[in-house]
Amino acid sequence: MTKKKATEESAGRPITKVLVRNLLLDAENPRLASAKGRDKQEDLLKTLWTEMAVDEVALSIAANGFFEEEPLFVIPENPREKDEARRRYLVVEGNRRLAAVMLLCDPVLRKRIVATDLPPLSQDAITKLKRLPVSVYQTREELWQFFGFRHINEPKPRSRGTRLARHGIWQRFTKTTKYRSQRSQTASEIGTRLS
Fold it and tell me: In angstroms, rounded to a whole number, what is the distance separating the alpha carbons of residues 187 and 146?
C-alpha cells in the first residue's frame, strides 16, 4: 500500500492505492467455482474472461478509466509481511474489475488468455491503472459479513427465478466453506430483507 494518508473512506474504512501486481484474484470466490486449476491466477483470469463478461468491464475502463469511488475489497494474503512492497492482497470483491485492468495493461497476458479484441491503451492510461483503490479488511469473515451478502441480495428488484438462483449460490457457498454466515443476521445488520 502507499504510505500516503488515505483521504477517502468506504464503509468507514480508509481507501488506499495498491499496485496491481500485489493484487490477487480470489480462488474462493463462488463465481469462480468452475475454474480449472483454481490455484493459478491465470486460470482464474481465463474463467473470468470466458464466463463473467469481463470484456464489458474492460471496455468501460478503457473508455472512462477506473471508477475510483468504488474500491476493491481485499484481505491480506500474507498478513505477517512487514515490507509493504511485498505485501499481497486477495481481492474478495472486485475480481472482474481487477481482471479487466490486468488484461488492459498487459498485451502478453491478453494473448495468452485470448482476449485480443480489447483496445490498446496509451502509456498514460496504463500508468493510471498501475495502482487501484482498495479497502482492506483483516479477514474474509469480517469482509464477507457485509459484502458477500451484496453478491446475493442486490438492491435491484429481481425475478423470483433470479432470487432463487442467487439464494442457491449463497447456500452452496455457506455450506462448502469455513466462512459460514447467518443470512438473517447479516440482513438485519445491513438493513435489508431476505427475499
Answer: 9
